[in-house]
Specification:
Layout (H helix, E strand, L loop, with lengths): L2 H15 L4 H13 L1 H33 L4 H19 L20 H13 L2 H17 L4 H24 L1 H7 L2 H27 L2 H14 L1
Length: about 220
């Protein structure tokens, strides 16, 4: 893997960490009400749920991706998945719910194992998270030639980026909690939806345009700079 691959993996983790949803709110709420250790236990459960989803995405799509990894239509499929996920994110009307109105309550008392289970199951029941990891796997897997070692380290770095960002969120929970008004939440999530749609569209375009043409265009842009 190149250094660029490492950077991209870390940024993917950062992006996934800021997807606004029940887990995002519960992590902040747990930190504010129960402290750092409780929020950390909750987040470790969330991370385990993500690891399970990544494994499902990998083993569930491996045979298909092995067969079509050199087929340009793969970019069309991956782009379509990201566009659909982006549209769901953009059109979700639950974005305006305030943090204090979160649908899932944190258990009373600092039962760390229970908080861990809460994090795992709250993340695991969200099928949208699986769709997101599947879209990333469809895009990333073939670019790494479906090499198990490369894929393992790529997603390890994704998880590290995800977890590191969550730690920052936990430490800044009170400040974030005060600034996350319904309007701000709504705008952030719609912005993320637009980014996913744009990235998906670029992936689909890559499936139709020959790689040589894309490289030629990139070279022209760099020369002009």
């Amino acid at each position: 893997m190149s250094l660029l691959d490492y950077k991209d993996a870390f940024l993917v983790g950062l992006f996934m960490s800021f997807m606004i949803g029940p887990v995002f709110f519960m992590l902040l709420k747990t930190s504010v009400l129960k402290g750092f250790r409780a929020a950390l236990a909750f987040d470790v459960g969330v991370i385990l749920g993500d690891i399970v989803f990544i494994s499902i995405a990998y083993y569930g799509s491996r045979n298909l991706l092995e067969k079509i990894k050199d087929d340009p239509r793969l970019f069309f499929i991956g782009g379509l998945v990201l566009i659909v996920y982006g549209l769901i994110t953009y059109l979700d009307k639950n974005n305006k719910k305030e943090l204090d109105q979160s649908e899932v309550e944190v258990a009373k008392g600092n039962n760390y194992f229970k908080l861990f289970l809460n994090g795992f199951f709250l993340n695991f029941i969200n099928i949208g998270v699986l769709a997101g990891w599947l879209g990333i796997m469809v895009v990333v897997g073939p670019s790494l030639n479906m090499n198990p070692t490369s894929i393992f380290w790529y997603f390890t770095l994704v998880i590290i980026g995800y977890f590191a960002t969550d730690i920052i969120k936990i430490l800044l929970a009170k400040q974030l909690r005060n600034k996350l008004t319904p309007l701000v939440i709504y705008r952030i999530k719609r912005g993320m939806g637009v980014l996913l749609i744009a990235f998906g569209a670029l992936m689909m375009l890559k499936g139709f345009v020959p790689k040589e043409k894309i490289d030629e265009l990139i070279n022209k842009v760099e020369i002009k700079r």
